[in-house]
Amino acid sequence: MAIQRIGIVGVGAISGIYLKNLTGMFGQRVKVSAVTDLIHERAAKANADYGIPHILKTEDLINSPDVDIVLNITQPQNHYGVALAAVKAGKHVYDEKPLCAKREEAREVMEVAAKNKVRVGGAPDTFLGAGIQTCRKLIDDGWIGRPLAATAFMVGHGHETWHPDPEFYYKTGGGPMFDMGPYYLTALINLLGPITRVCGSAKKGFETRTITSQPHYGEVITVDVPTHIAGVLDFASGAVGTIIMSFDVYSHTLPFIEIYGSEGSLRVPDPNCFGGPVYVRRGFAETWSEIPLLKDFSENSRGIGITDMAEAIAGNRPHRASGELAYHVLDVMHGIHDASASGSYYNVKSACSRPEPRD
User: Tens digits of per-residue pLDDT, 266-321?
Assistant: First the structure.
């Protein structure tokens, strides 16, 4: 099977774990052949630390004969430009989340990719880890019966106290839904299938945020996006979901995700992680029972999604962290915001299949 060569655009904070895993645990399955970043020192450090053969300008990387897949881990508002250039150049592309900031951008990328017979993939790939794959097997094997409902919560107080460059989290393409929603929605779609209709309310808790992390300590961010979103999800399967995404909450006692079935309940681990504890409580059982993880990749395995995509290209099979899945998630996230603005339901225009479980 041919090894797919990966060129990485953007060597910011999240790139470290990609570089570590793609040259380490997945290094026999893919090859990182080139890196680029607007800050040359970052690319030079990646080159030195991980032995990447080439440091190139973005245009040169995208057009390089030594690159088969472009890994696009730029900031959200830049996903479209890089992804579109990649598929126009006949390269496969895998975007960090979200797929693009806007639906129409993502649709164009998908259409050009289809025309040029290349693939689009998208983060997150945490749903391929041991935790959520174990939950998938439990659901598929009938441990909780027929799934009827779900809840999902990601609530905290934002990134300005710890992130070195938090401003983009409060601009277009950011906010709690577009930052963390992809993890939760991707996990839910993997477990329950696609979503057909949504409604919700989206509000901005604070007009400004003051950075207390370095190196931008004391700078004030103008908030341009909603920072507390409450949504309802209607799944094609008939299940109904509730989701809350917030940067306005200091403390809480909420679970990450729970699935409620006709014969019991399932507590799903943090979808921002690959492992985590899995609990089941069947029928009227008095306590929750922890289920041992039934799959591998419980450690931080970021990069498993693009590795699966690379192997799927070589093996001519569908890849799991697909563009269709990432676009469906993007459509649902915008749909919840649209429903809040219009005061009505949004009938989701996109669709996707549940990704195949890992062996």
Answer: 999 999 999 999 999 999 999 999 999 999 999 999 999 999 999 999 999 999 99
CA distance 348 to 195: 7
Give the tens place of pLDDT for each residue, 241-276.
Answer: 999 999 999 999 999 999 999 999 999 999 999 999
Going from the N-terminus, what domains does the chain have, and what CATH number goes with each?
4-122 (3.40.50.720), 127-296+329-347 (3.30.360.10)
Sign of CA dihedral 225, 229, 232, 235: positive
Which H/E stretch holds residue 109? helix 103-115
DSSP string, 49-79: HH--SEE--HHHHHT-TT-SEEEE-S-GGGH
What is the token pair recorded at 9? 């655009």
Q: Using one digit for the tens of pLDDT, what is the confidence trace for 3-47?
A: 999 999 999 888 999 999 999 999 999 999 999 999 999 999 999
The residue whose two tokens read 């192997």 is 311
Euclidean distance between the first and the last CA atom of the chain, given in angstroms as a whole number: 19
How many whole angstroms separate alpha carbon 111 and alpha carbon 235? Answer: 26
Q: How would DSSP label each residue in 170-231? A: GSTT-HHHHHHHHHHHHHHHHHH--EEEEEEEEE-S-SEEE--SSSSTT-EEEP-S-SEEEE
Tokens of 147: 């799934």
pTM beyond 0.90: yes
Per DSSP, 252 falls in state -
CA dihedral 340, 341, 343, 348 (to 10 degrees): -70
Burial (CB < 10 A; 0-12, 13-18, 19+), residue 317, is exposed
Nearest to 152 by CA among 111, 179, 174, 181: 181
Token pair for residue 260?
């409620």
Rounded CA separation 323/337 (Å): 21
Residue 1: pLDDT band with limits 50, 70, 90: low
Q: Where are the beta strands (DSSP E) in 61-158?
A: 69-72, 92-95, 120-122, 147-155
